[in-house]
Target: MIR domain-containing protein
Amino acid sequence: MMRKQLYTSNYAEVERDVIRLISQTRGSQPMKSHHVFTPCVTGIALYRVQSFPSSVHSSPVYMMAVMDCAMHLFLSSFTLFLLCISCIQAKGMQHVTCGSVLKLMNMDYNVRLHSHDVKYGSGSGQQSVTGTDMKEDGNSYWLIKAESRKQCTRGQPIRCGDTVRLEHVATKKNLHSHLVSSPLSGKQEVSAYGDHKGEGDTGDNWMVLCNSDFWERDDAIKLKHVDTETYLAVSGRTYGSPISGQIEVVGDYSPNSPHTQWITMEGLFIHPNDFKAQHHHHTEL
Model:
């Protein structure tokens, strides 16, 4: 089995998300950062890793267990997933890959792509998608998946021109659009859609447009909605209650709009030690 590596960006930011989410779950006072490790080990124990060497933090067994915990349990437990992320030291990585979990920031308005279990009061009535300027909000994480009815290998770099889906980690619904007017600007509505397994329809498919061979974390990208040929954008209009201060996210027909550029921010990024070799020897975890 080919061992895979995990990389987190902006470690302190992710750790703060973890601490806040756990405090909310427990209904208790805010946790200290050193409390995070214990529940992560509890998660690892579920995978029957029964012995830890004295150098546990650097042990390959430990690192593999943490990765297994993260990649197999986060779909059923967002909190545990973030706990596992928080146990791994932040490092750099060049590409966005299949299975990466990340936040996207609109480069014009400096807001992160966001969703939550709040439905639109008009239009489709589906789960709303907005932009938020809160960097530490755990509801802004998105999982990169293959397009509808297809699969991709975890760790496989996303090429410019590839079609992907973005699954909202907290609610398991996919970034979606359709021929419905948005509530504030009258542009095209962008929503989150799908069942409890993260499956929706072709309205969940987005093409990654960038200027390199691969989607690189430091580069601006555009996301083109495949069904309607609009571009993921921010309108600049601001919502009132119950999501006061959040910005409307829309589909824009103009590819040259300055509001359509996005960049990768915080997240967890996965890739094999040698991506080329996995075409011959790869075994899924």
User: Anything to note?
Assistant: Confidence is low (pLDDT under 50) at residues 1-9, 21-77, 82-92, 273-285.
